[in-house]
Write a structure and sequence with these properties.
Layout lengths: L3 E4 L2 E4 L4 E7 L8 E7 L6 E6 L5 E3 L7 E6 L4 E6 L8 E8 L8 E2 L3 E6 L1
Parallel strand pairs: 2-11
Antiparallel strand pairs: 1-3, 3-8, 4-5, 4-9, 5-6, 7-8, 9-10, 9-11
Protein backbone atom coordinates (compact mmCIF):
# COMPACT_ATOMS: atom_id res chain seq x y z
CA UNK A 1 0.00 0.00 0.00
CA UNK A 2 1.30 3.44 -0.94
CA UNK A 3 0.14 6.59 0.83
CA UNK A 4 0.46 9.98 -0.82
CA UNK A 5 0.09 13.29 1.00
CA UNK A 6 0.03 16.56 -0.95
CA UNK A 7 0.84 19.97 0.49
CA UNK A 8 1.65 23.48 -0.67
CA UNK A 9 -1.66 24.59 -2.13
CA UNK A 10 -3.21 27.93 -1.35
CA UNK A 11 -4.44 31.26 -2.69
CA UNK A 12 -2.18 33.23 -5.00
CA UNK A 13 -2.60 36.16 -7.36
CA UNK A 14 -2.32 35.70 -11.11
CA UNK A 15 1.32 35.71 -12.15
CA UNK A 16 2.44 34.26 -8.84
CA UNK A 17 4.06 30.95 -7.98
CA UNK A 18 3.42 27.96 -5.78
CA UNK A 19 5.29 24.73 -5.18
CA UNK A 20 3.29 21.62 -4.45
CA UNK A 21 4.84 18.65 -2.67
CA UNK A 22 3.71 15.06 -2.53
CA UNK A 23 5.25 12.83 0.13
CA UNK A 24 5.00 9.12 -0.54
CA UNK A 25 5.32 6.09 1.67
CA UNK A 26 6.98 2.95 0.42
CA UNK A 27 10.49 1.63 0.32
CA UNK A 28 10.62 1.53 -3.45
CA UNK A 29 9.57 5.09 -4.23
CA UNK A 30 12.46 5.44 -6.65
CA UNK A 31 10.84 2.84 -8.87
CA UNK A 32 7.47 4.61 -9.06
CA UNK A 33 6.28 6.72 -11.93
CA UNK A 34 4.63 9.80 -10.45
CA UNK A 35 2.11 12.21 -11.84
CA UNK A 36 0.19 15.36 -11.05
CA UNK A 37 -3.43 15.80 -12.08
CA UNK A 38 -6.00 18.50 -11.41
CA UNK A 39 -9.75 18.88 -11.31
CA UNK A 40 -11.51 22.21 -11.61
CA UNK A 41 -15.11 22.68 -10.47
CA UNK A 42 -17.53 21.14 -12.95
CA UNK A 43 -14.74 19.62 -15.02
CA UNK A 44 -13.16 16.21 -15.32
CA UNK A 45 -9.80 15.42 -13.80
CA UNK A 46 -6.98 16.19 -16.23
CA UNK A 47 -3.33 15.31 -16.56
CA UNK A 48 -0.82 18.00 -15.62
CA UNK A 49 2.66 16.46 -15.56
CA UNK A 50 4.48 13.21 -14.96
CA UNK A 51 7.95 11.98 -14.14
CA UNK A 52 9.21 8.44 -14.66
CA UNK A 53 11.44 6.49 -12.32
CA UNK A 54 14.37 7.48 -14.52
CA UNK A 55 13.55 11.17 -14.46
CA UNK A 56 11.90 11.58 -17.85
CA UNK A 57 9.23 14.27 -17.67
CA UNK A 58 6.28 15.35 -19.74
CA UNK A 59 3.51 17.86 -19.20
CA UNK A 60 0.24 19.06 -20.63
CA UNK A 61 0.38 21.75 -23.30
CA UNK A 62 -1.59 24.10 -21.06
CA UNK A 63 1.22 24.20 -18.48
CA UNK A 64 4.33 23.79 -20.62
CA UNK A 65 6.92 26.41 -19.87
CA UNK A 66 5.19 27.33 -16.60
CA UNK A 67 5.06 24.15 -14.48
CA UNK A 68 7.97 21.85 -13.68
CA UNK A 69 7.76 18.42 -12.10
CA UNK A 70 10.71 16.99 -10.19
CA UNK A 71 11.45 14.32 -7.63
CA UNK A 72 13.77 13.75 -4.69
CA UNK A 73 14.10 10.03 -4.13
CA UNK A 74 16.01 10.54 -0.88
CA UNK A 75 12.95 12.30 0.52
CA UNK A 76 10.32 10.13 -1.20
CA UNK A 77 8.83 13.33 -2.55
CA UNK A 78 7.68 14.66 -5.89
CA UNK A 79 7.24 18.37 -6.55
CA UNK A 80 5.29 20.57 -8.91
CA UNK A 81 6.73 24.04 -9.29
CA UNK A 82 4.04 26.30 -10.72
CA UNK A 83 5.02 29.71 -12.09
CA UNK A 84 3.10 32.39 -13.96
CA UNK A 85 -0.13 31.07 -12.53
CA UNK A 86 -3.39 31.93 -14.25
CA UNK A 87 -6.97 31.94 -12.92
CA UNK A 88 -7.67 28.92 -15.13
CA UNK A 89 -5.11 26.94 -13.11
CA UNK A 90 -7.54 27.02 -10.17
CA UNK A 91 -8.29 23.41 -9.24
CA UNK A 92 -7.72 20.67 -6.74
CA UNK A 93 -4.34 19.15 -7.52
CA UNK A 94 -3.69 15.47 -6.96
CA UNK A 95 -0.54 13.44 -7.08
CA UNK A 96 -0.63 9.82 -8.14
CA UNK A 97 1.76 6.89 -8.23
CA UNK A 98 2.33 4.09 -10.70
CA UNK A 99 3.35 1.60 -8.05
CA UNK A 100 1.40 -1.54 -8.90
CA UNK A 101 3.34 -2.65 -11.94
CA UNK A 102 0.41 -2.23 -14.34
CA UNK A 103 1.44 1.15 -15.66
CA UNK A 104 -1.76 2.65 -14.30
CA UNK A 105 -1.88 5.25 -11.57
CA UNK A 106 -2.83 2.95 -8.74
CA UNK A 107 -2.57 5.29 -5.78
CA UNK A 108 -3.85 8.82 -5.30
CA UNK A 109 -3.47 11.52 -2.72
CA UNK A 110 -6.33 13.44 -1.15
CA UNK A 111 -5.65 16.58 -3.16
CA UNK A 112 -4.65 20.14 -2.37
CA UNK A 113 -6.58 23.24 -3.42
CA UNK A 114 -4.92 25.85 -5.60
CA UNK A 115 -6.83 29.08 -6.16
CA UNK A 116 -5.51 31.79 -8.48
CA UNK A 117 -7.19 35.17 -8.23
CA UNK A 118 -7.30 37.63 -11.11
Amino acid sequence: QVQLVESGGGLVQAGGSLRLSCAASGRTFRSYGMGWFRQAPGKEREFVARITWSGYTSSADSVKGRFTISRDNAKNTVYLQMNSLKPEDTAVYYCAAQAGGSGNYDYWGQGTQVTVSS
